[in-house]
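Supplementary Note 3. Input sequence used for the single-chain structure prediction.
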Amino acid sequence: MTHFPHCDTLALDQHGPALHVTLNRPDARNAMSLAMVAELAAVFQQIEHDPAIRAVVLRGAGGHFCAGGDIKDMASARSQRAEADAGEPDPFYRLNRAFGEMIQQVNESSKVVIAVLEGAVMGGGFGLVCVSDLALAGPTARFGMPETSLGVIPAQIAPFVVARIGLTQTRRLALLGLRIDGNEACRLGLVHQFCDTHEQVDTALDTALGQVLRCAPKATAATKALLHRVGHEPMGGLLDDAARQFAGAIASDEGVEGTLAFVQKRPPSWAANHQPDATGDR
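The predicted structure, written as discrete structure tokens, is reproduced below.
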């Protein structure tokens, strides 16, 4: 069991290889404070090279995922800005950029990141959804990019939203400040599954975590890293490197164990506690 430092804005609960991270500021609908940003960054940094953790489940306390940025932090930044000496970095820049660094860190994490969504999923919370590997929406989830209606811009999340749902749909949501429900979020590809009840959400999460455990952890991490390179490198060079990685994976401990387990019709060592389903897919 991994030992984590004390967190004031997060609740951490490890269940086997899954770390459940709950945004825990329910009185503020889990608004993203600078402290929460720092704690999320610290947690993801700590687990990055921890083989005991293979998945991270993000959710919010008190019926909401995240209502966006913390207004108190913005007021504090405004006060700091008024008092800042010439030449010092703008406190609003530091505040906004810190969130961007954290969300990029979550995006590039080698772990499988699962977002479980209910209630308000706004602003920064919307951005977190866009860097998850799997997003499950419950019946109360409401999504939005309200920044333009507040006179600001979705500076750090916009690139991730475009990558998630495309430029056309991002324009519609961001420029009109729209709010959408879980059904539409699923239709747009923002989330992967909409659940009619909270019980269905729990079932979908259990199923997803079971699937994660069936996949080899090193192969999963390498695959995620490969996917992030698509569109950023010339295809020929990317495929050359992917072939080298494939050859290495075949000869690795995971590759040998996985192919041997398939032939022997048994779960591989990394899924020893997972029972094959009734479809006989092994």
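The radius of gyration is 20 Å. Residues 91-107 form the longest helix (17 residues).
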